[in-house]
């Protein structure tokens, strides 16, 4: 009769923003929360060991690898994606590359053109970056 409430995740607050109309070329490394509404041509990486959250809006595009703890997306990523804990793909999401994840939620309309590789959350969090 009564539905259970959906469990809410405690995610870091968004502290940084790459706004719409902004294009960054090069590697972006962050901790805490980062929202991207613009474009990044290069890797986007969370500081290893941080509980970082990356939010990608439906206007955003990343051309490069993504390595984060939590990812909520509705835009485009062209490159490999590694998510140590949770990945949420909203309806306009599109990933062109392989995805390694611990937990995934895919909304109707989201697209992945690549391999899905499950990794237990007990395995090391993030691969070592160069």
Describe the 3D structure.
The chain has 130 residues and is mostly beta strands. It has no helices and 16 strands. The strands form 2 sheets. Strands 1, 3, 4, 6, 7, 9, 11, 13, 14 and 16 form a 10-stranded parallel β-sheet that branches. The relative contact order is 0.16.
End-to-end span in angstroms?
53 Å
- Total DSSP helices: 0
Percentage of residues in strands: over 45%
**Sheet/helix structural class:** mainly beta
Question: In this structure, how is the largest beta sheet organized?
Answer: 10 strands, parallel
Q: How many beta-strand elements?
A: 16
Question: What gyration radius follows from the Cα positions, in whole Å?
Answer: 14 Å
Shape: globular
The SSE string, one letter per element, is EEEEEEEEEEEEEEEE
Specify the helix fraction band.
Answer: under 10%
Low-confidence stretches: 1-10
What are the main properties of this structure?
ten-stranded parallel β-sheet, disordered N terminus, six-stranded parallel β-sheet, 130 residues, mainly beta
Q: Any chance you could write out the topology, listing elements then pairs?
A:
Blueprint: E1 16-18, E2 23-25, E3 28-30, E4 33-36, E5 39-41, E6 44-46, E7 53-56, E8 61-63, E9 66-73, E10 76-78, E11 81-89, E12 94-96, E13 99-101, E14 103-106, E15 111-113, E16 116-118
Parallel strand pairs: 1-4, 2-5, 3-6, 4-7, 5-8, 6-9, 7-9, 8-10, 9-11, 10-12, 11-13, 11-14, 12-15, 13-16
């Amino acid at each position: 009769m009564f539905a259970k409430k959906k469990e809410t995740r405690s995610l870091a607050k968004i502290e940084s923003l790459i706004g719409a109309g902004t294009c960054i070329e090069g590697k972006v490394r962050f901790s805490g929360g980062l929202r991207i509404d613009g474009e990044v041509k290069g890797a986007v990486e969370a500081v290893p060991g941080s509980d970082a959250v990356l939010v990608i809006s439906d206007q955003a595009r990343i051309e490069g690898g993504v390595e984060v703890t939590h990812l909520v997306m509705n835009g485009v990523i062209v490159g490999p994606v590694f998510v140590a804990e949770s990945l949420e793909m909203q309806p306009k999401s599109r990933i062109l590359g392989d995805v390694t994840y611990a937990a995934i939620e895919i909304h109707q309309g989201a697209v992945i053109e690549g391999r899905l590789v499950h990794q237990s959350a007990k395995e090391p969090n993030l691969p070592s970056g160069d």
